């Protein structure tokens, strides 16, 4: 399996994980009144995972281009 496919899958997993964190953070929960969500933590986790996913997508694209270039050079 090519490395660019692995990074593409990782980018998708990171992005979906970030969306799930935001979705679960804003779901109403039963409990004491003072036990509200920590919005700074929710958005911090989302942006960290978004940065990871963008980095994985860029690395996947660059590896794909490099592999394509190397395969043309071999021919």
From TrEMBL:
<feature type="transmembrane region" description="Helical">
    <location>
        <begin position="5"/>
        <end position="23"/>
    </location>
</feature>
<protein>
    <submittedName>
        <fullName>Uncharacterized protein</fullName>
    </submittedName>
</protein>
<keyword id="KW-0812">Transmembrane</keyword>
<keyword id="KW-0472">Membrane</keyword>
<feature type="transmembrane region" description="Helical">
    <location>
        <begin position="43"/>
        <end position="64"/>
    </location>
</feature>
<keyword id="KW-1133">Transmembrane helix</keyword>
């Amino acid at each position: 399996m090519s490395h660019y496919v692995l990074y593409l899958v990782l980018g998708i997993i990171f992005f979906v994980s970030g969306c799930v964190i935001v979705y679960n953070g804003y779901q109403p929960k039963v409990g004491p009144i003072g036990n509200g969500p920590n919005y700074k933590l929710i958005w911090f986790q989302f942006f960290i995972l978004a940065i990871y996913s963008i980095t994985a997508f860029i690395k996947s694209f660059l590896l794909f281009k490099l592999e394509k270039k190397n395969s043309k050079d071999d021919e």
